[in-house]
Design brief:
It is globular, with a radius of gyration of 20 Å. The chain is α/β, with parallel strands linked by helices. It has a six-stranded parallel beta sheet with strand order 2-1-3-4-5-11, with helices on both faces. Strands 7-6-8-9-10-12 form a six-stranded mixed beta sheet, sandwiched between helices. 48% of the residues lie in helices and 15% in strands. Strand 6, helix 6 and strand 7 form a beta-alpha-beta unit.
């Protein structure tokens, strides 16, 4: 995505936010139109119910997505249900989605972490007229195979991986490693692919290492890899918990300042690590917007039949020493 395109999408996003405030302000005197192309427009004035069904677990990232969704529910007068999972697994996501569908909501915002697992559940729902928006993770299959949801709200994961790859090449690294928490997770694999593509184009080899989701297991796996691969000087991690674990492992191996580390997502530990220089930078998906805009657009589709003309990108945004103090203040407020 070029700078001009990104700027247009940002201005479009602000325009939508301004429009939504105006619409909410005048909705009591407005008539809802007929059914939209998605079949999502409402002909009544009852409170809508929206389910936000993701692979959310109790890491800080998902608390911010949830806050965005709940804040939008308050603004638009919608009931929002946001189930969590214990371990961010596909079976848990499928179970939560089945429960959400059984509740017959007025709209769904869903993370498509496994298109093959969710496809047979979502296609009948969409065909039946329930609007579905993808958030956080899109269906990355070819266009003619994708689940026909309305559009996607979230970061461009390939671009995010490429952005870190470019930072690594600029830093003069010699060898890279992608420390992935969930093998097969479409978003994580895409991040690694973007990072790998850029480094390999520059003649730099990259290894993918699956470290799992348990923090203790992650620390052991990362420490073992550090000791066994002293030539690797560029690391990328997939979330804020793993990012801090990797930073601590690097400290324990006395490699701080000798290797580069970038992480995805924000947490207080990661922000502190960026401030101290233990982490070079963190990719912020601006996930509050994923939750907020997901619910906002479900409401606008339910009420007025609105559908934006393209996906809405909320990231990547790089947090580094130049902006970490400002972002830290917003993190405390629960919006970054």
């Amino acid at each position: 995505m070029g700078i001009a395109t990104g700027t247009r999408r940002i201005w479009a996003l602000f325009a939508v936010l301004g429009l939504s405030i105006s619409l909410v302000g005048c909705s009591s005197n407005s008539q809802s139109p007929g059914a939209s192309a998605s079949g999502g427009a409402s002909s009544g004035g009852s409170q809508p119910t929206f389910y936000v069904v993701t692979h959310a677990s109790t890491v800080p990232f998902w608390a911010t997505v949830q806050k965005g969704a709940m804040d939008a529910g308050t603004v638009f007068g919608a009931k929002v249900v946001f189930p969590f999972t214990k371990d961010s697994t596909v079976p848990e996501l499928v179970n939560n989605l089945q429960s959400a569908i059984a509740a017959k909501p007025d709209g769904l915002a869903v993370s498509i972490t496994s298109a093959t697992a969710l496809d047979p559940l979502l296609r009948p729902v969409i065909s039946g007229g329930t609007p579905v928006i993808a958030i956080n993770v899109p269906d990355s299959r070819p266009a003619d195979q994708r689940i026909p949801y309305l559009f996607y709200i979230g970061s461009d994961e390939l671009l995010a991986g490429q952005t870190i790859g470019n930072l690594a090449v600029a830093a003069g690294v010699h060898s890279g490693a992608c420390l992935i928490t969930e093998a097969g997770n479409a978003a994580l694999e895409t991040r690694c692919q973007g990072f790998t593509d850029v480094l390999q184009t520059a003649g730099i080899q990259v290894q993918k290492v699956v470290v799992g989701l348990d923090a203790a297991a992650e620390q052991a796996a990362i420490s073992q890899f550090l000791l066994g691969h002293p030539d690797v000087d560029a690391y990328i991690t997939m979330n804020s918990v793993e990012g801090h674990v990797a930073a601590e492992a690097i400290k324990s191996a006395n490699l701080t300042g000798k290797v580069h580390l970038w992480s995805f997502d924000l947490g207080q530990d990661v922000l502190n690590d960026v401030k101290s220089g233990s982490i070079d930078g963190a990719v912020d998906q601006q996930e509050y917007l994923q939750g907020y805009l997901g619910v906002e657009f479900l409401y606008l589709n339910w009420k007025y039949g609105f559908i934006p003309a393209s996906d809405i990108l909320t990231g990547p945004f790089i947090v580094n020493k130049s902006n970490v103090d400002q972002i830290s203040k917003l993190f405390v407020e629960g919006v970054r």
